[in-house]
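Review form for a predicted model. The reviewer records the input and the model, then writes brief findings.
Reviewer: anonymous (R2)
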Amino acid sequence: MTFLSEASARALLEGLDLVSFTERDEEGAAYSGPKHWHVFDVIARRPLPKTSIPVGHDRS
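Model under review:
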């Protein structure tokens, strides 16, 4: 388990295309008893490489 602030979590994603970043703020259970959780759900992807060839044109 990793414990991060929202700013720290977003910093780890720098350089990626962020598709979705949501925070779940809820009560839940833990081994030691009830806890208050902040869970980040993330969908991110590597950016497409930049090319000088227009989309849809053949390289030949």
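Findings: The radius of gyration is 19 Å.
Further findings: The chain has a mean pLDDT of 88.
Recommendation: see findings above.
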